[in-house]
From TrEMBL:
Domain Orotidine 5'-phosphate decarboxylase: start-end pairs: 5-222
The protein's role, per its UniProt record: Catalyzes the decarboxylation of orotidine 5'-monophosphate (OMP) to uridine 5'-monophosphate (UMP).
Catalyzed chemical reaction(s): orotidine 5'-phosphate + H(+) = UMP + CO2
Native organism: Nonomuraea dietziae
Protein's UniProt name: Orotidine 5'-phosphate decarboxylase
Pfam families referenced in this protein's UniProt entry, alphabetically: OMPdecase
UniProt keyword list: Decarboxylase, Lyase, Pyrimidine biosynthesis
Quaternary organization: Homodimer.
Amino acid sequence: MTPAPIAVALDAPDLETAARWASLVTPHVSTVKVGLELYLRYGPDVIASVRGASGVRVFLDLKLHDIPNTVAGATRAVARLRPAILTVHAAGGPAMIQAAVEAAPHTKIAAVTVLTSLSAADLAAIGVEGTPEDAVRRMAVMSVEAGATALVCSPHEVAAVRAAVGPSITLITPGVRPAGADSQDQARVATPEQALADGADLLVIGRPITASPDPGATAASIAASLRRS
Ligand SMILES: O=C(O)c1cc(=O)[nH]c(=O)n1[C@@H]1O[C@H](COP(=O)(O)O)[C@@H](O)[C@H]1O
């Protein structure tokens, strides 16, 4: 069976746990995601550990955000690990996004628009004007014009972003919670079925899978529910 379009966020405190989660979920999902917690602790070695024997796609979520020259150097430093996807913050602006794209020709650069943990009130507090959807759409269009071929947004904005950027851009949505699950620190959430129906290409799901008693079975069950929807 084709693995489901899910990136499991391996936000684990240690490498053994991350590698175990990766091996449990990889028969069912297309991608595993390595973020700051693991990468800052273990560095590049973590990529080979979670890739394991299966050779699953690795999404490196470092959310780079600095001046263009620094982001170009950081992107080059990790491009040799050949992650399928690397994140940068859209708020770094077009020159920074373009620098990342040029530094990693074999990796999809995904621009993170507005973090899914931010509410409308949080956006106002940091001085971003308009609704979250307006801000996400603005940043999405700017990022694609700068060369990003993937975008990260919440399921709430994915339909509007799809309409704005067209079919060829990969849309990635964290903030995904199966019906009835706790949203925890996420502010803009929807179910996996809804996110996919609204146009997402890849769903990022962490704790609903990794904190469950049986991550492999939970990943399989979410994957099956997507096939039925
Ligand atoms: O870039 C990301 O992956 C990301 C962007 C965003 O706006 N919100 C967001 O939650 N994420 C990541 O997606 C994952 C969500 O994990 P859970 O909330 O446990 O499902 C975490 O690893 C976050 O770092």
